[in-house]
Structure formats: C-alpha cells, structure tokens
Amino acid sequence: MAKTNNDEQFKNVISHAKEYGFVFQSSEIYDGLSAVYDYGQLGAELKNNIKTYWWKSMVQMHENIVGIDSAIFMHPKVWKASGHVDGFSDPMIDNKDSNKRYRADQLLEDKITRYEKDGKTDKAAKLQADMDEALKAENLPQLKVLIEEHEIACPVSGTKNWTDVRQFNLMFSTQFGAMAEGAEEVYLRPETAQGIFVNFLNVQKSGRMKIPFGIAQIGKAFRNEVIARQFIMRMREFEQMEMQFFVRPGEEMKWFEYWKEARLKWHTALGTDPVKYKYHDHAKLAHYANAATDIEFEFPFGFKEVEGIHSRTDFDLTQHQEFSGKKMQYFDNDLNAEGKPYGNYIPYVIETSIGLDRMFLLTMIGAFEEQDLSEGEKTDSRIVLHLHPCLAPIKAAILPLTKKDGLPEKAKTIMDNLKLDYNVVYEEKDSIGKRYRRQDAIGTPFCITIDHQTLEDDTVTIRHRDSMEQQRIDIKDLEQLIANKVSWKNLLRQS
C-alpha cells in the first residue's frame, strides 16, 4: 500500500468521492454553498444501502421496534418544550482580523489533537480537563482564557485577536403562512427525535405496543453550523438515523448498556477494524440525560463521534405533557402479573442516534486503499474501495471482452437476468484491465467477463475485487455466488 499521511489520505478520499460520483459540492456551478453537499449517482446508492442496513437491523430484526416518518415542520411549541429555543446553542468566538467565527470548544479540541501529535500528552490531558470543566460549568469567559493561554491563533489571519465567547443558536427559522405579516415563525427541525416523542401515544396505541418498545426514524435535520469543517462531517443539512427506546423507570441503565454493546456490534459487523472504534463517555451531560456515551471512529483527523447512545430519562415526554396539556403516561398492566401494583408512568428513554453522513464518510475512509501492485521492474497500482458487498453501490459489472461476435448480446442477456435482484452495470468501453480498475475504484465486488468461450459452454470469468482472483464458473451459478456475498441475511446474522 502506498504510504500517505492522514491529511493526504483525507484529501484523496474527498477527491475520489467527486471524481467517481459519490459526493459533489452543492450548487457547484455557482461556486457552491458552504457546508452543503449533494450525493451523486454512486453516493446515493451507498447512502441508501447504509440506511437499509440500519433499518433492517433496527426494525426488521426487532419485534418491538417500529419505524415512522415524521414531518420536518413541527409546531413551534415542540422546540420550546424540548429546550431548543432557549438552550440549543454553541459557544462561538470571532477573530477580529479575519472576521471568521469559530466554535470555541473546537479550537481547543484542535489544539489538544496537535499536542497529542507532538507527543505533549500531559498538556493535552490538562487542556482536555480544563475545557471539560469550563463546558460543564458553562463558563464562557474561561473558554476564552484557555484559548489565550494556549496561544491559539485564527487559521485564516494567524492572529490571536479574539472577541469574547458567546452563545449562538443553531436553529433555522422560517415563516409559516401565506403572507409574512400574518405568518408564524417555525423552525426546520434540528433533530429527528422530537417527531418520535410527539407521536409516542399515536404509535403506542395504534400499534398496541408494550414497554419496552422502540420507535425508529431516518430523516433530514438542519443546523445553522457556523463552520464548514471536514467535508461532510459537519453540515447544515444532514440526515440522522435515530431510535428512541421506551423503558420502565429504573431499568434505563440496563438498556443503556445493552444498546451501547448492540450498536458497536452493528458497526464492526461491516468488517471495519474494531481498533478504529472506541467509547467516549460525556464529561458534560445534556440537560435531558443521566448517561451518555459516544461511539467514536478514528478518522484521519482524529477520533470523532459517529453515534451517540443517551439515557434521556423522562425529560422529553414530561416536557411535552406539560406544554401540550396532553397526558403522555403509559398504563403498564404487566406490573400486576409480576406481583406489583398496576401503574401509570411516563417511560424513560434510551436513544441511539447516528449521523448518516458521518457513517457515509467513515465507510468511504475505511474502504479506501491505494495499492502498489508493482512486481520487479513492472510498476502498477490501483485504487480500491473495500466496501462490504451489501453496501457496494454496484454489485456486479457485466463486461463483454469485445464489442462484436455476439458477446454484447450474450452479456446483456446475463445483465437482464441479474438486474431483477441486483444493481448491476454494463461496460464495453476500454480494455478489460481498465474496466477492472474502474470497478475496483467504485467498490464493485464482482466483475463478470463474457468471452468467446462463453458462447461455447455458457461459462464466464468472475473476478473478485479484493483478491483480484479470477475463476471460471457456469452462468447458472452466478446468481448463487453473488447472493452469498451480498445477502442482507448473512450481514444481519452478524450484527
């Protein structure tokens, strides 16, 4: 494998994502829109496959979890009840020379990372502890003191001419109504969770759900992120995959531990190196939580959160009961069977929340490899995406060796049969070697080559992406061979 440093690797992944149709800058012909991205033809396929894996793991594999799709627009009181109107803010600081705005905690985190890279682990640990203490106490002046003490400069101007740290609300607002004068201010949802909470009773009663049970959802959310950072890592429009699991009060920590383990297993089932993952317990808990852990992945720019598991207590349902005037209690008649009195209670909630875009980036980074295939004086290389076959945008490429002698017709017959079950492509342009390389670069697990022998005995050459091994098989065996590798069944058994 060609040696690259982390920065180069990340840049190469970003370049690769654009070149092969995974991710584009939004409105690129107009010079783009900061922190907003479009998913191209292969990116959309990969993204949908990640969503399918999550949905099947959550909803299909759990009898007590159902899925919904709530609206992006919600009543303004929802966000008052949830605390987002008054408390959904980030500590921001401006550089007076560049007029650029930054999150104070991210400036400090970047400094911690630099200390660690330079081997100054004691300084890194001390700054981490001081920052955590300031954040927990919501001590904004102390955050500025830390930035000044550690001589953090603006990445643009290079100066240390900072304003005070202040809070900045991250919600997008818009007008809801026919005319602005008579319109009501509403928000684009900053998270999908509240759509689950306000539908708690609707789902519970219509589905006759019994505690413990979960409600899952995949959907867009919007945050007015000030800083465009690290490609699709932090965006203004993003997608979340969230599940809220409703449990009896007092049993929340048992389920918190269960979902921590279950969610990490879901990640590693994809074949990603387990060493790349770690748990990170929150030093400062959100206002609704009594426990919180992040699953972090080692990106080229350090360990960052990919998924959060939170014990949200009964905060959300209690708040919505208070602000709406509607009872959000659950009548647990199973308690009597256990020798306990019947009881009404507001359930506690365990949340699993994963950023789909971050999972997409993680998948691309984990799969990307630049391989040196040189032998002796012969130089050769390839770029390959080692995507799990279930996630690969294209499952197989159908490649006639030449454009004549009936090979394209035979190839298209094979394609017409396979495309009923799988997303496959047909390519006849360029040499067979170049076509192999292109399919390696987009992560296609199998290349099926149709040659003159195929016309004689109905066999084809199938090439395996990772090993580059080629084998001759009967056309009638193609479907089973592909199915064994790309079957959701096999992946779900491991997750």
UniProtKB/TrEMBL annotation:
It is an enzyme of class 6 (ligase). Belongs to the class-II aminoacyl-tRNA synthetase family. GO terms for biological process: diadenosine tetraphosphate biosynthetic process; glycyl-tRNA aminoacylation. Catalyzes the attachment of glycine to tRNA(Gly). It catalyses: tRNA(Gly) + glycine + ATP = glycyl-tRNA(Gly) + AMP + diphosphate. Gene3D superfamilies: 3.30.40.230, Anticodon-binding domain, Bira Bifunctional Protein, Domain 2. One of its GO terms (cellular component) is microvesicle. Substrate binds at residues 103, 191, 238-242, 351-355. Its EC number is 6.1.1.14. Keywords: Aminoacyl-tRNA synthetase, ATP-binding, Cytoplasm, Ligase, Nucleotide-binding, Protein biosynthesis. It is found in: Cytoplasm. GO terms for molecular function: ATP binding; bis(5'-nucleosyl)-tetraphosphatase (asymmetrical) activity; glycine-tRNA ligase activity. It comes from Pedobacter cryoconitis. InterPro entries: aa-tRNA-synt_IIb (IPR002314), aa-tRNA-synth_II (IPR006195), aa-tRNA-synth_II/BPL/LPL (IPR045864), Anticodon-bd (IPR004154), Anticodon-bd_dom_sf (IPR036621), Gly-tRNA_synthase/POLG2 (IPR027031), Gly_tRNA_ligase_bac (IPR022961), GlyRS-like_core (IPR033731). This is Glycine--tRNA ligase. Residues 151-400 form the Aminoacyl-transfer RNA synthetases class-II family profile domain. Homodimer. Its main location: cytoplasm. PROSITE patterns: AA_TRNA_LIGASE_II. ATP binds at residues 223-225, 305-306, 355-358.
